[in-house]
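Section 5: illustrative case.
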């Protein structure tokens, strides 16, 4: 085999590189028929600008021309090569030496369903590979992104950052704060945006980025709760920002009309008219498609750059008398020195000036907001965002330093200094002008007074006006595109159920036309009626909230230490991101404290709403990763803590089978484990007896594996705080034994086995009875407590649920149970259905009767106590029944009352039963004898050889010797049932000490007869036996 050079030895190799294994000359045609012909698409590559190195391929002679033609044209050819064809027989034979289904690594296996960049392929399952060899073929399709402007991210970011602030407010900021503090203000704002840019770059390079911008980045990192809350306000902020920028443009136009005395109506209505016309034009550009919008942005950027260059040219053109009177003297050291320090006026300070400037630094997410339209967002977002921040910061600082204008000027050309005139010592005095009267009366010119300083300084004033037009229109256009894109992504995820109408896209680029119309309507409303000066601080805080969450997302993902957090962009730090998040929150209050509070309130409300609705999405967020880390750390920390009786809680392993099949057993177990202990619903799949719920004959393991997630989902959907576990075993007992030994984690492992009473023990095969009793013995062997629960109708409702579809696919809830009878009137047992829901209902006033006959460590008394603190059982009082001597009834009551008071367990009554050990009446004993008759050996009535033979053939039968040996114990069980009938017939629940059968001495059928007669014809019964270790204590 002719192998390609080993790129793994190349230290300069990039993240994704592929070597094609060259086919043998004799097999070229065969290989070409088998391999796919669609070109691979590598949008999920690492962050790098060397696109030509992303795919490094080794060629055999004569194939390079074919590949070059393929790269240039992107067209299929009969001889085209696919470097990832994993289903070609020739590929496998030459790579591995035999035909196999095992696929080689391929990017399409890791895509999400519905990926816009290519179809998700399903690799063969482990079961398919393990069980049999099968030919699997997938037709691959790759959808190329339609938007190929790699530089558009930088263009959009720069246009949004370079706003009207650069042209009409920066001079005032320098006048107030001075050049020194002005540069610090710019750098402080840049620090916020730079940290956010680094965090954005890290998140954007941690996997393929779809449309949605800030919403997509935050939601996929922190989950739908944070993403959904910030996505809605971020989209709204962009929609209102359209109105703000358009009004800024309209105001500038109206000022020009006012100067030429050509107003149409009046200033306010002219702003509305021009704003409406502008928004309609911008909407037309946006709806035309991203290509037209990008071209418009490039044109606007050129105009903006020309305007900035025009300003710097103006600073070196020799000034004239008129400009000198307005305070412009070209570059002068004295002016620089005078303007370097601050001169705050009119109540302004450092933070108030910073609050005015900071909105100029926003706009760094303009490119990320159209992430779905970028050819390679993983590369474009980091490069474009950081480059835009760098260029715009340099421009802002350069303009601030190039302040060639004094703070105050009169504009009067006659305010020159003549010989003998005294001056105030300002830099203007040294340059021949006296502007000292500006200290006592308002002046119209200078950095502090004239917002049109850049127009005056520039070489050609109208170009600055054009720059203002360009800045406002470009920002408006960017916001008009961003808002629908973000909103469409939010609606596609269906986080808010009522907004899916806006998820539909149109055309080849999936344009959100409906979103454009909604954004247009919002913008028009605020242009026509809103008070933008009031809403502007809230909008700025909305953007800052997005920045804060992006920084926090980066920190959170790093802190969670998830293996899935592998950003290709390495120039970030989790603590810097956290600092950036806190900095953004601080800046929100600096800009406007009440707007910050409103922002937090809205975000909190939306967060609570999304959390309450619980959208059915799973994005692998860092929140999930942190849950796992915290759970793991807590579990490990718990292993170092020794068990203490005060912290005992029942941690139950409940043999429910499929939890929806025995809902009552789960309900009563959940009643004393919810928010208190561990509950594991267990199911055993046996080889000899595949359960009737198996959906198809896919094998034992297939049946088990395919149902685990669905059954756990059923528990979650029905608000049962329990886990589901299943094992496959040769027998039921072997499976339960595995569960008893291996279930749980560290200290969080079961200490109590909960099972339902085997109601059909008399008709079931002997092996089933042996397994049932055997698991009770096994639980005692592993030092677990045992709870056997019996209700009159039994727990298994599978016969009710069984329809033409198998039980495996049902999700039974209380509401659906109530509708079953109307569906199949003659087929269901209504009493069985009612019994299956009896523990879901609130128990009325009544009693829980506790027959605490044997001290098992206190589990028999602890379980009913826990039930009484539950909402559904709180109206039930505890009645205690215990054995005693007839001549010591009062003393026994006092002893029991004293013990329970020390345990701080409230009770309604204590009854001392003195006649437990007397013989039962003849009718009861006769019933017991008739019940065990079919299972007796009667060896005393047979000769010795026959008796020995029967013992060997039927070892499970009850011998006469065994019955005689345990006759007193049998009497006791029958007598207890009589007493239970007498005292506890009306109880809501009976909790009874479970009799223990000695291994090897008591046969399975005799023990089952004891349990049968003990709990027969009674309300729900819990037969409890602890592991004889204390679970109660009266010590503090």
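Designed sequence:
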């Amino acid at each position: 085999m002719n192998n390609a050079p080993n790129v793994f030895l190349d230290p300069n190799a990039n993240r994704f590189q592929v070597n094609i294994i060259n086919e043998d000359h004799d097999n070229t045609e065969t290989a070409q028929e088998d391999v796919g012909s669609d070109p691979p698409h590598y949008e999920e590559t690492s962050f790098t600008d060397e696109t030509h190195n992303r795919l490094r391929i080794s060629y055999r002679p004569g194939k390079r021309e074919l590949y070059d033609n393929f790269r240039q044209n992107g067209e299929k050819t009969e001889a085209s090569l696919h470097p990832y064809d994993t289903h070609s027989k020739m590929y496998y034979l030459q790579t591995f030496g035999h035909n196999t289904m095992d696929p080689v690594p391929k990017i399409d296996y890791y895509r999400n369903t519905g990926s816009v960049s290519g179809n998700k392929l399903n690799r063969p399952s482990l079961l398919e590979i393990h069980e049999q060899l099968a030919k699997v073929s997938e037709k691959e399709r790759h959808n190329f992104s339609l938007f190929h402007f790699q530089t558009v991210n930088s263009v959009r970011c720069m246009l949004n950052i370079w706003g009207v602030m650069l042209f009409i407010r920066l001079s005032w900021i320098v006048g107030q704060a001075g050049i020194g503090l002005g540069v610090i203000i710019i750098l402080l704002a840049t620090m916020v945006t730079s940290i956010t840019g680094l965090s954005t770059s890290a998140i954007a390079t941690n996997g393929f980025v779809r449309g949605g911008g800030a919403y997509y980045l935050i939601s996929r990192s922190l989950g739908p709760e944070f993403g959904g809350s910030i996505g809605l306000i971020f989209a709204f902020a962009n929609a209102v920002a359209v109105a703000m920028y358009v009004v800024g443009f309209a105001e500038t136009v109206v000022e020009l009309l006012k100067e030429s005395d050509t107003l149409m109506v009046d200033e306010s209505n002219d702003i509305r008219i021009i704003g409406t016309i502008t928004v309609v034009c911008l909407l037309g550009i946006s709806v035309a498609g991203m290509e037209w919008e990008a071209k418009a942005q490039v044109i606007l950027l050129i105009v903006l750059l020309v305007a900035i260059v025009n300003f710097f040219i103006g600073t070196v053109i020799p000034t004239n008398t008129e400009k000198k009177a307005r305070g412009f003297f070209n570059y002068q050291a004295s002016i620089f020195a005078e303007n370097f320090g601050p001169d705050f006026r009119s109540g302004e300070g450092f933070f108030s000036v910073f609050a005015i400037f900071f909105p100029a630094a926003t706009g760094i997410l303009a490119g990320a907001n159209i992430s779905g339209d970028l050819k390679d967002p993983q590369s474009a977002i980091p490069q474009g965002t950081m480059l835009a921040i760098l260029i715009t910061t340099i421009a802002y600082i350069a303009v601030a330093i190039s302040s060639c204008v004094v703070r105050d000027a009169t504009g009067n050309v006659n305010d020159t200094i003549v010989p003998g005139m005294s001056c105030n010592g300002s830099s203007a005095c040294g340059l021949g002008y006296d502007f000292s009267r500006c200290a006592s009366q308002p002046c119209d010119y200078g950095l502090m007074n004239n917002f049109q300083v850049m127009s005056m300084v520039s070489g050609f004033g109208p170009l600055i006006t054009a720059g203002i037009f360009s800045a406002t229109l470009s920002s408006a256009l960017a916001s008009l595109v961003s808002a629908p894109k973000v909103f469409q992504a939010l609606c596609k995820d269906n986080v808010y159920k009522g907004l899916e109408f806006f998820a539909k896209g149109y055309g080849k680029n999936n344009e959100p036309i409906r979103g454009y119309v909604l954004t247009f309507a919002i913008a028009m409303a605020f242009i026509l009626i809103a008070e933008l000066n009031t809403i502007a601080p809230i909008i700025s805080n909305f953007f800052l909230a997005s920045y804060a969450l992006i920084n926090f997302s980066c920190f959170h993902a790093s802190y969670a230490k998830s293996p899935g957090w592998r950003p290709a962009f390495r120039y970030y730090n989790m603590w810097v991101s956290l600092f950036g998040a806190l900095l953004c929150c601080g800046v929100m209050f600096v800009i406007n404290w009440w707007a910050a509070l409103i922002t937090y309130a809205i975000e909190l409300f939306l967060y609570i709403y999304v959390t309450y609705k619980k959208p059915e999405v799973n994005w692998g967020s860092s929140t999930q990763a942190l849950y796992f880390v915290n759970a793991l750390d807590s579990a490990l920390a718990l292993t170092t803590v020794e068990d203490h009786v005060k912290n005992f809680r029942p941690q139950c392993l409940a043999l429910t089978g499929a939890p929806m099949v025995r809902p009552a057993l789960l309900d009563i177990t959940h009643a004393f484990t919810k928010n208190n202990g561990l509950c594991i619903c267990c199911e055993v799949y046996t080889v000899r007896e595949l359960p009737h719920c198996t959906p198809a004959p896919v094998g034992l393991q297939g049946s088990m594996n395919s149902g685990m997630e669905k059954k756990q989902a059923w528990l979650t959907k029905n608000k049962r705080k329990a886990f589901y576990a299943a094992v496959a075993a040769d027998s039921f007992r072997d499976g339960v034994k595995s569960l008893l030994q291996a279930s749980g984690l560290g200290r969080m492992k079961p200490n109590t086995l909960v099972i339902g009473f085997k109601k059909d023990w008399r008709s079931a095969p002997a092996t089933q009875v042996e397994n049932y009793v055997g698991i009770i013995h096994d639980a005692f062997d592993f030092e677990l407590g045992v709870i056997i629960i019996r209700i009159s109708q039994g727990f298994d409702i599978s016969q009710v649920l069984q329809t033409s579809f198998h039980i495996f696919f049902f999700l039974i809830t209380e509401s659906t149970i109530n509708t079953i009878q109307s569906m199949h009137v003659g087929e269901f047992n209504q009493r069985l259905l009612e019994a299956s829901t009896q523990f879901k209902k609130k128990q009325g006033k009544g009693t829980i009767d506790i027959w605490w006959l044997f001290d098992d460590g206190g589990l028999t008394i602890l379980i009913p106590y826990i039930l009484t603190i539950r909402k559904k059982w709180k109206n039930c009082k505890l009645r205690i029944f215990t054995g005693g001597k007839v001549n010591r009834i009062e003393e026994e009551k006092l002893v029991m009352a004293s013990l329970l008071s020390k345990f701080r367990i409230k009770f309604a009554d204590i009854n001392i039963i003195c006649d437990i050990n007397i013989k039962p009446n003849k009718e009861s004993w006769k019933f017991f004898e008739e019940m065990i008759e079919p299972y007796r050996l009667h060896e005393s009535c047979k000769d010795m050889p026959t008796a020995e033979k029967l013992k060997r053939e039927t070892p499970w039968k009850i011998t006469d010797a065994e019955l005689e040996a345990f006759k007193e114990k049998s009497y006791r069980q029958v007598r207890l049932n009589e007493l239970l009938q007498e005292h506890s017939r009306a109880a809501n629940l009976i909790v009874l000490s479970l009799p223990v059968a000695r291994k090897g001495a008591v046969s399975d059928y005799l023990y089952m007869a004891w349990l049968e007669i003990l709990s027969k014809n009674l309300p729900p019964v819990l037969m409890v036996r602890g592991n004889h270790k204390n679970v109660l204590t009266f010590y503090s």
